[in-house]
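user: can you give me the structure for this one chain? tokens are fine.
assistant: on it. calling the predictor now.
[tool input]
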Amino acid sequence: MAAGLAGKDIISINDFSNPEIERVFDVADLMLKSPRKASSLLKGKLMAAMFFEPSTRTRFSFEASMHRLGGSVMDFANTESTSVAKGENLADTIRIIDSYADVIVIRHKYEGAARLAAEFASHPVINAGDGSGQHPTQTLLDLYTIKKEKGAIKGLNIGLVGDLKYGRTVHSLAYALSRLGARIYLVAPEMLQMPSYILSDISNGSIASKTDKLEDVIGDLDVIYMTRVQKERFGDLNEYAKVSRAYTITKDTMSKAQKGAILMHPLPRIGEIKPEVDRMENAKYFKQAANGIPIRMALLSMVMGAIR
């Protein structure tokens, strides 16, 4: 990793080598240990937060991270107040924002929008989620959480549960887990199973099981990664209704899991994890969300060249 991540676009988890992922984790640890030293790393720098889709955790954690690094944020959360509402195309919008900011963080409903933005921007572009494509920064904080909680990733049995067809978080995560030596269990109704183009890319023996019944595999799992069924990705709401409550995690569900198994979720949850589970030792999803701060602080400082 001679040149580090300085000046690079972060569009896909596949943009990282395994050593680069480990380096991001090391820098995230530094952010947690030395927040005062980090507080001026990006002083005078400006981040454009371009969120064409709703977001709570990703948007606010990026903004909080930039502020904690001493930088400033230009918020683009309401497109109705911009020329996008007049019909301006994405390429032109990116060209303009790129002339104002030092880094662009973009979330968009269309897959490929972040890569398109990177083609027209001279400054680094970070993909904060593009349609049903990828969500690389979520994957980094997911991997960071797993490593913190379980000590390692290689050799773990990790179940991806719920909406594997449209879920960009599990798309990115599947790529990373296969490279890092985990065994992946795919748990979803057939109509929401992992897309074949992703399976063909990771068909290296890392897929341990494919099923629609969580109860068949839950006792084998070290990590249960739950996702919501994404209503906004369905063209037919009747189809959504058929699978919207395919899986619900309760205390009883977790009683069937291994004692040391952890439960994760990228959030928001819409009923697929009952509130009764929140106080269980297994529940790590709020801690997982909090890990977005050190990971995104690390990424911002690295792509902007403050830390190698």
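assistant: here you go. The longest strand covers residues 46-51. The beta strands are 46-51, 72-75, 103-108, 125-130, 157-161, 183-187, 207-211, 223-226, 262-264.
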